[in-house]
Amino acid sequence: MYILLQSVLSVAVSVVIPTFNMGGNISMSISSAQSQTLRDIEIIVVDDGSTDSTQELLKTIASEDTRVKVITLDQNFGILYARMELLLHPVTSKFYTLLKHSDTKSILYYLRIIITMIFLCHK
């Protein structure tokens, strides 16, 4: 059981957060992803041409945590385009998920998903 838990904790997951003008709230979503129990987590924030303090805040957060990567679009193209930006900047893990820029998840959220997927695949 311990070996299984260790291998599950080591599964790589990319959390993608599209955002636009959320300088006041985006740090909560990023912090939620940073706090996950999974060890190998990549956080990709796609800034959809923000005109407020979002870009500066994202630069600061990314400089303090190498797991956070920021993709900045020149102008606001909309959330669908921001999500499609992943086709040009692919994630580095087998699994990825989208997180709204105003959402937070419990620290066990992604771990539970991975355990469920492993359980269902081995039935």
Entry summary:
InterPro entries: Glyco_trans_2-like, Glycosyltransferase_2, Nucleotide-diphossugar_trans. This is Glycosyl transferase family 2 protein. This protein has helices spanning 2-9, 26-34, 54-64, 79-84, 109-121; strands spanning 13-19, 41-47, 68-72, 95-98.
Describe the structure.
The protein has 123 residues and is an alpha/beta fold. It has a single domain, classed as Spore Coat Polysaccharide Biosynthesis Protein SpsA, Chain A. Helix content is 38%, strand content 19%. The protein has five helices and four strands, in the order αβαβαβαβα. The chain has a four-stranded parallel β-sheet with strand order 3-2-1-4. Strand 2 (41-47), helix 3 (54-64) and strand 3 form a beta-alpha-beta unit. It is globular, with a radius of gyration of 15 Å. It comes from Hexamita inflata. Keywords: Transferase.
Q: What is the fold's blueprint, element by element?
A:
Layout: H1 2-9, E1 13-19, H2 26-34, E2 41-47, H3 54-64, E3 68-72, H4 79-84, E4 95-98, H5 109-121
Write the CATH architecture name: Alpha-Beta Complex
CATH topology: Spore Coat Polysaccharide Biosynthesis Protein SpsA, Chain A
Overall strand count = 4
Poorly predicted segments: none
* Alpha-carbon distance between the two ends: 17 Å
Main attributes of the structure:
Spore Coat Polysaccharide Biosynthesis Protein SpsA, Chain A; Glycosyltransferase_2; single chain; 4 strands; Glyco_trans_2-like; Glycosyl transferase family 2 protein; 4-stranded parallel beta sheet; 123 residues
